[in-house]
Amino acid sequence: GLYQKAETLYAMGDFEFALVFYHRGRRLRPDLHKFLLGIHKAEEAIINCIGNPSSVKLESKEELCFVSRQAESKKDNQKQQNKPKDQKDQKQTKKQSPKTEQQLLGQLYADKAYLEKLLKDEDLMQSSTRQGAKVMDLVLDGISYLNQRRDFWQQQKPIYAREYERKALRQGRARDKKQKPSDIARAIAKEMEDIELMLARGSAEQSCRKAERLLKKIQAWSEDEVPNKYELIGNLHSCIGNAQLAMGQMEAALHSHQMDLECAREHALPDATSRALDNIGHVYARIGKFQQAINTWEEKIPLAQSSLEKAWLFHEIGRCYLELDNAEVAQDYGEQSLQSADEEGDVEWQLHATVLVAQAQVKLKDYRSAILNFERALEKARLVPSEAAQNGIIA
């Protein structure tokens, strides 16, 4: 479910959390190129939104917090305990400019401003509630909570991501009878995660049905309610296609992935276009239509964004040419795959590419070169903890 959750978060504009899940997926499944592609596109999206990190200037003024003052000396500690809390809290609030703080707190900024105004009322601050609690302590506790919330949001989400959420919320206020966009987004993210989990656990039919129901819901919503509506529609067609492929429904899977491709092209979504071409090629290869797979994957080549993606793409195309007994072209694609794998430093794809080259050379009766490449592949296989790969090469 990590990949689907990351894709959903990316489609909703929550690029940081998407990047977190792409990295988690990459650590768990380094063999899946799609996580690395996700990392690249999420990082690029973040840079496009906030610019180069070196250009970001944060206002930072020295502050002497209560804890650090405590550590200076015992005498100073005693003095600090006797100081009014409002002085300490006011020093802490200097850290953020009013404009930045307002962006971070949103509607809660008005509450903080009201509490700070109460601090100026000395008579009120000296009073107590019926339960005996000091009003000053309650006010300062409220300000402290809001400061913590402000700091939390600054760490968790940049301002541009919150602007995205606030825009969606503003658009939804006029439609009281409908769900708020933020609620819809959370519900969609949860359902997408469930769909992916079901498929991963082998419940392809259940995953497919859930994806089809969610697709109908999203198609009925407007773009105001679901920003990036068409990215999600394409993503669901892809999920349905993957589930159908798992159930052995090849023609249905091909149709679903072609719907994903059609949606991506219609709405100029290059990442979705690349994904759809990838999946269509896999379906063609599974049903033995190797030339159609080749044509599809060759169309994807200009969309490849990294050396790792090119490594597996060239390998898959070369494998199809080998199945068609075109060993010369297969060898050429195998060598291109190996070159890309070397650029990426990926041992596993170096292994796959080297084996492909060796197998093509066997068909070309270049046995000396084939033996050398099989020996190189065996060395690579020993670097990859896969006894099956070693045995396959030796056999």
Automatic annotation (TrEMBL):
Any one cellular-component term (Gene Ontology): axoneme
Segments of this protein annotated with the region Disordered: 69-102
TPR repeat segments: 274-307
Highest rank taxon of the organism: Eukaryota
Main location: cytoplasm
Cellular location(s): Cytoplasm, Cytoskeleton, Cilium axoneme
Keywords: Cell projection, Cytoplasm, Cytoskeleton, Repeat, TPR repeat
Gene3D superfamilies: Tetratricopeptide repeat domain
SUPFAM superfamilies listed in its UniProt record: TPR-like (SSF48452)
Residue ranges, compositional bias (Basic and acidic residues): 71-92
Entry-linked PANTHER family: OUTER DYNEIN ARM-DOCKING COMPLEX SUBUNIT 4, PTHR23040
Protein's name in the database: Outer dynein arm-docking complex subunit 4
Organism field: Pheucticus melanocephalus (Black-headed grosbeak)
